[in-house]
Amino acid sequence: MAALNAMSDSFYVIGGKWKLRIIISLKNGNKRFNEIQRSIPGLSAKVLSGELKDLETNGLIQRVVYNETPVVVEYLPTPYSDTLEPVLTSLVAWGENHREKIRNGEF
Asked: Where in this chain does the record put each HTH hxlR-type domain (predicted)?
């Protein structure tokens, strides 16, 4: 039961279609809202805005506002987001392996 609860907590924070993609985009150097949106095909501005708020609330990203003209807003991964690195690496490896199995008709 504890494992199910822990998994539920994980999915609450990073689950869904976009959150891990947003974190990867930030780790690839995209910092501004439009840069992030352009780097992830199919992601609408409305959804991105909500996902960024959720990721900030859960301590995975930081929103930095620079008082310039015009105002500049950047999103940065926090050191806490580095704890997801093993998860991201495993998911990428699994996805590559799965795609290869499908291409080879192994199912």
From this structure: 5-103
- CATH code assigned at 78: 1.10.10.10
Q: What average pLDDT does range 38-55 have in this prediction?
A: 98
Neighbours of 51 (CB within 10 A): 21
- For 77-94, write each residue's pLDDT tens digit: 999 999 999 999 999 999
Backbone phi and psi for residue 85, each to the nearest 5 degrees, phi listed first: -55, -45
pTM over 0.85: yes
> CB count, 10 Å around CB of 95?
10
Which element (helix H / strand E) includes 60? none
For strands 61-66 and 72-77, give the pairing.
antiparallel
**Residues spanned by the domain of 50:** 1-104
